[in-house]
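Re: export button greyed out
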Amino acid sequence: MSAAACADARRDQEEAAPTTLVVSQGGDPGALNPAVTTSGNTHPVTDQIFNGLVGLDEQLNPIPELAERWDVENDGATYRFHLRGDVRWHDGEPFTSADVKFTFDEALLKYHSRTRAALEGLLTRVETPDAHTVVMHLARPYGPLLQRLDVVEASIIPKHQYAGHDLLSGEPTRRPIGTGPFRFVSYTPGDRLTLERNPDYFRQGLPGVDRLVFRILPNPVTAVAALENGEVDYIGSVPGPDVARLRASPAIAVVPSTGGSGGSVCQDVLIPNVTRPPFDRLPVRRAFAHALDRRFIVERVYFNQGRPATGPISHLLAWAYTPDVRQYPHDVSEAGRLLDQAGLPLGAGGERFGITFTHASNHQRLGQVLREQLKAVGIRLELEVLDFNAQVEKVFVKKSFDLGLASFCNGADPDIGVRRVYVSSNIGPFPFSNGAGYRNPRIDALFEEAASVVNRDERRERYVAIQRLLAEESPYFWLIDSEGLRAHRRAFTGFRLWTGAFAETVRRAPPTTDE
Amino acid sequence: MTREVTVTRWALGRLLVALPVVLGVTTLTFVLIHVAPGDPIYLLAGDGGSPAYYAEMRAKYGLDRPLVEQFVRYVHAVATGDLGYSFMFQSPVLRLLLDHAAASLLLGFAALVLGSAVGFGAAVLCVVTQSRGLDALVRGAATVAYAAPVFWTGQIFILIAAVKLGWLPVGGMSSARETLVGVEWMVDVARHLLLPAVTLALPLAAVVARVSLASLIEGLRETHVRATYARGLSRARVIGRHVIPNALVPVTALVGQHAADIVAGAALTEALFGWPGVGYLVLHGSLHRDYPLVTAAFILISTSVVMFNALSDAAIAWLDPRIRLR
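Workaround output, generated via the alternate export path:
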């Protein structure tokens, strides 16, 4: 009997027992307060325990969650939320507008790095006219507010639990009380975290499994093996070399995903330091862009987990995206011509100049491919491999680099994840800022306009203009619009892979499938 | 002087030697992890924040103080029994280390016993059978086992024993799907223990086999051993009585040296198998620049190195009457 068949037989015996979904998790979440952190190890867990005011549908449009409806008033400078009246915290206390106000005033605007950066100075006042109404007053009209209010960007936490406690490490962060589909049971650092079904969840009939266990498996190879072996049911990322083997397994489904707790709609982007030679000159950047064979990189480095990027906004953010911008097809002779014109001719030994690529150890394969592709146009690429943390510091904080790399997640709206990379007010020095050091007042103004109108068609016009201008200037080299793969055992179905609360709708698959 | 007094004096001496060692390791770890590139604040506070926000958070964690001040504060806290607060786990370091020590000790001792027994057993078997083929096999296997990195052998074991054959679980210390108690739980833990323990034991078994073989063969050539042959004792008796006890001395020293490494430093094996031990904490603490956690873990590890060395010295003194504790 094969391993898969063994696991299936084991599963059949458990049919009568409570259903347990086991999820592999790469690292420890630590404190379990989602309103004070953006951590990719905390949110996959807490997004199952908590809710946002709004949810996001598959196209990343806002849908009702803790707020059952809302009115946009005052041309988009005031948002009035009508909360559900039937929601209770896991300890039985009713959920009210006071919880929302507390969460924004005490947690999100103080500690949640992304939400604070976006709303500080913009969200001037949160009012609670009654127990089930919340009014947010903004300093100016702001279109993308709703996209910022899902469970990932703005989980709502209970005031009665947290008031008087340290929000970062106090007692409530160890035994989180939420409103979400699952209740916290226990957490053993380095081992596992166990949740159970919330029988009083406000969405009737959900969730579909009785227990949800996060098994901490730091090594991706082990996580894949545990999935194949049936010890875990779901893994949030699939290493490229394992994709084909998992696809061939009848018990396992490999599915593309564009979002979730770790960040949604991501692009891998090469970051040139445009504040110093050689990337301070446009012809050099254009030549460099022509030297890259993105198709090859997407196939051989990313194992087709995505599509070659055409510009600063991912094609997955369909309403804002346009492919109608200056393109840089792989063209060695054009790259050579541009560099000759720029006064960087081929020297002795077929070399024009050398630069250093600072990157994390998990991108070594990309480094090697880039080195070969650039050699063809006479650019020598030195590879500087550091651990993730050190590399981020060198590129974004110390800014002592020629060429870096980051995965920038666009989020549910370009204002969330795209703007920060290009506006001159966000040059840092801190991680995932405008690492290139690019400054263009026209771009700054366009992003400002795009955020302050509410109508989506009008916003699209601004984003199209932004994409055209940035493609002309090429301040970054956009490699791939990522479509990360996830994998789950076919014994379960109903994963919502575009949102943080991926497990809410999971249920055991009907026995008619090939399992 | 009575034996008790000698032992007490010896133990006190060892403790006095241990203090500067542990202090030195603490200083070195503290300095190294702080000068290494990478800033914990971004992992603590998240990405995309404003400079003012990061400044506030630095102050909150005391990371805005000069390094010397941070160090003095730290040593003072450690001296009063406070090992600090882990950034990553938002939890007292001491509690974390204690919570994870049991898993590490279980894995470490299982690997230690397995590695020593297999290594020494293989060597004894070679000497007793005097088979050239077996000797070549043991030496060859030992070379390969010693050279192979644990993250590679571990992955091979996972692929064969867990994925292909489905005999053993891949990772963790107990099953995540069901909650077991009593004997069933013990069996479950033992099943989870087997692969990481074998992986960790393999390099030790290799060294032990080679050292044991060398000392057993040397022992057989000793004049007093030849004399016992001459007196007509059987080969098995000679080896059992006169060769093995002498060969145990260098082997014990060797196992003692490796014990601390194995119990406290099995980071790669623990991370590979998702084993919730101290090694996993150290590995993740280093990657996340969790200064308090990593520094405290190294204090623990250096202390256990000193302790295991002392224990192996004591064991050697007990085995070899010529050596006395001083």
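The first strand of chain A starts at residue 20 and ends at 25. The button fix ships in the next patch.
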